Amino acid sequence: MAKNFDVVVIGGGPGGYIAAIRAAQLGFNTACIDEWKNKDGKPAPGGTCTNVGCIPSKALLQSSENYEEAGKHFADHGIKIAGLEIDVAKMLARKDQVVKQNNDGILFLFKKNKVTFFHGRGSFAKAGDGGYEISVKGAADETITAKHVIVATGSNPRALPGVPFDEQKILSNDGALRIPAVPKKLVLIGSGVIGLEMGSVWRRVGAEVTVLEALPTFLGAVDEQIAKEAHKAFIKQGLKIELGVKVGEIKTAGKGVSVAYTTAKGEAQTLDADNVIVSIGRVPNTIGLNPEAVGLKLDERGAIVVDGDCKTNLPNVWAIGDVVRGPMLAHKAEEEGVAVAERIAGQHGHVNFNTIPWVIYTSPEIAWVGRTEQQLKADGVAYKAGTFPFMANGRARALGDTTGMVKFLADAKTDEILGVHIVGPMASELISEAVVAMEFKASAEDIARICHAHPSLSEATKEAALAVDKRTLNF
Ligand code: FAD
Ligand code: NAI
C-alpha cells in the first residue's frame, strides 16, 4: 500500500469523505483516516452525521411519525387499528440497520473512487519537506505523508459545566438515539434543533417531554412569524416548552434524574425524569489531532482558524465542516469538502453561504434559506413579504396536514428573493426550489410565473411568491 499521498483527509464524516472522493475524482492519490467504530469494533465512516446525527435521527423521526399517524390520524381515513404498540427494540434495530447501510455505502464509495481508507486516529506528527507526516494509530500504527491535508474532524456535544454525559440518564445526542424503552418523563435542555427533533421522537412514542430553554424567545434564529407558528403547533402536540429558564443542579437519584431550574418569573422548580437530554450546542473537535506539532492555529472556541477558502495558517493544510466557523450542517461540510478539493486542483471551488438551507425535521417541518424578516429590518433593507397557508392548498388538505405556511421575502425595488421560510409538510423538500431560485438570483415574480404541478405542496410556494405582489389565486 502506498504511504505517500497527494491528499490526506483526517475525518470521514460528510465533510471528509466527500472531500476525499472529490480529490480522488480529480486525480489525486488520496487517503481518508477515520476512527469511528461500530459496536463490533468495525470501521463506521460517515461521522456524527451517519452514526449519531442526521441519519439515525431521521430514521427514528420516521418511525415515531408512522406510529403517531397510525394512532391519531389513520382513523380519519377509515383505517381502524386495534392493539397498536410500539416495539422500541425493533425501532432502534431498524435505525441501526439504516446507519450500517450508510457506513457500508461509504466504504464502497472509497473503493469505487480508489480512496485509501485508514481506520484509526490521525494526528499531525511533523511538517517535512514539501508536506506533512501524519501518524495513524489503529489496528497497526503507521506514518503516512501528505502534500495536502484536509482536516474534517467534526464536533462533539457541549456538556453543561460540571454535568458530564453518562449516556444512561444524562444523555447527549448519542444516548438520546438509543434509549432502550420509552421514558415516562423526559427533560430536554435546549430547544434548538436536537432538542426539538429528539423531543418529537420520544413524545410521539409516549414520553411526557419538557424542554427547558435559556433564551426568552423560541427558535431565535428562525423567522419570527414561522417560529411562532411552529411553537403553537408543538404546544398543541403536547410538548412542554419553558423559555427563559436558568438550569441549576442536575442530580441522578435512584432510577431517575432530577433537574433544578429557575423559571423566567424567578420561581425555583425541580423536574424529576427518567432521562435528561442535554442539547445546548456542539463544540469543534480537535482531540487527538495534535495541532501543536505543526503550529495549526485554533481560535478561543477550539475551532480551526480558516479564511473564506478554508485555508488554515499552514501552507497546504485546509479545514472544513463542523471544526471550522459557520453553520454546523452536513451539507455545508460537504460543499466545503468539494470546494477545497477543487481548489487544491487549481480550480475555483466556491461555497455560497447565503444560500445554505436549514431544515428542522419536526412535524411540521421548518425550513428556510436566506434572511429572516427580523434580519432584513435590522439590516435596513426595504422588502416585500408574501405568505400562503397550507390550509388553502388542495394537496395539503388531501394529506390531512394543513399546518403552516410558505413565506417569501423579496427586495422592495428589484423583487429579488431575499429569503424563503416554510413551516409545514415536506418543508425539507420544498425549500430546494427556493435555494435554486436564490442561486440564480430569481425574483419572486419568476417563481410566480413558473408552472407548478397540481395538486402539489409546491403550489403553496408559487402562491406565496404571488402573495408578494398581493395576487394569490387560491386565498
Ligand atoms: P463529523 O460528521 O463530526 O465527522 C468527523 C469524523 O472525524 C468522525 O467520524 C470522527 O470520528 C472523525 N475524527 C475526529 N478526529 C479524528 C482523528 N484525529 N483521526 C481520525 N478520525 C477523526 N446536519 C444536517 O445538515 N442535517 C441534519 O439533519 C442533521 N441532523 C443532526 C442530528 C444530530 C442529532 C446531530 C448531533 C447533528 C446533526 N446534524 C445535521 C449536524 C451534522 O451531523 C454535522 O454538521 C456534520 O456531521 C459535520 O460533518 P463533519 O464532516 O464536519 O464532521
Ligand atoms: P442548537 O444550537 O441548535 O440549540 C441549542 C439551544 O440550547 C439554544 O436554543 C440555546 O439557547 C440553548 N441553550 C444553551 N445553553 C443552555 C442552557 N444552559 N440551558 C438551557 N438552554 C440552553 O444546538 P443543538 O440542538 O445541540 O444542535 C447542535 C447543532 O447540530 C445544531 O446547531 C445544528 O447545527 C446541528 N443539527 C442540525 C440538525 C438539522 O439540520 N436538522 C439536527 C440536529 C442538529
UniProtKB/TrEMBL annotation:
Q: What is its EC number?
A: 1.8.1.4
**UniProt keyword NAD present:** yes
Which cofactor(s) does the record list?
FAD
| Predominant location category | cytoplasm
- Residues forming the Pyridine nucleotide-disulphide oxidoreductase dimerisation domain are 356-465
- Spell out the InterPro entries in the cross-references: Class-I_Pyr_Nuc-Dis_Oxidored (IPR050151), FAD/NAD-bd_sf (IPR036188), FAD/NAD-binding_dom (IPR023753), FAD/NAD-linked_Rdtase_dimer_sf (IPR016156), Lipoamide_DH (IPR006258), Pyr_nuc-diS_OxRdtase (IPR001100), Pyr_nucl-diS_OxRdtase_dimer (IPR004099)
Family in the record: Belongs to the class-I pyridine nucleotide-disulfide oxidoreductase family.
Supply one GO molecular-function term: dihydrolipoyl dehydrogenase (NADH) activity
Q: Where is the FAD/NAD(P)-binding domain?
A: 5-337
Q: What general EC class does the enzyme of this chain belong to?
A: oxidoreductase
Protein name in UniProt: Dihydrolipoyl dehydrogenase
Single GO biological process annotation from the record? 2-oxoglutarate metabolic process
Q: Where is the active site?
A: H454 (proton acceptor)
**Organism, scientific name:** Ramlibacter algicola
Q: Which residues bind NAD(+)?
A: G190, S191, G192, V193, I194, G195, L196, E197, E213, G281
Intrachain disulfide bonds: C49-C54
Give its localization: Cytoplasm
Q: Which Pfam families match?
A: Pyr_redox_2, Pyr_redox_dim
Q: Which domain of life is it from?
A: Bacteria
Reaction(s) catalysed by this chain's protein: N(6)-[(R)-dihydrolipoyl]-L-lysyl-[protein] + NAD(+) = N(6)-[(R)-lipoyl]-L-lysyl-[protein] + NADH + H(+)
- Listed binding positions for FAD are K58, G122, T153, G154, S155, D322, M328, L329, A330, H331
Keyword annotations for this protein?
Cytoplasm, FAD, Flavoprotein, NAD, Nucleotide-binding, Oxidoreductase, Redox-active center
Q: List the GO cellular component terms.
A: cytoplasm
Q: How is the cofactor bound?
A: Binds 1 FAD per subunit.
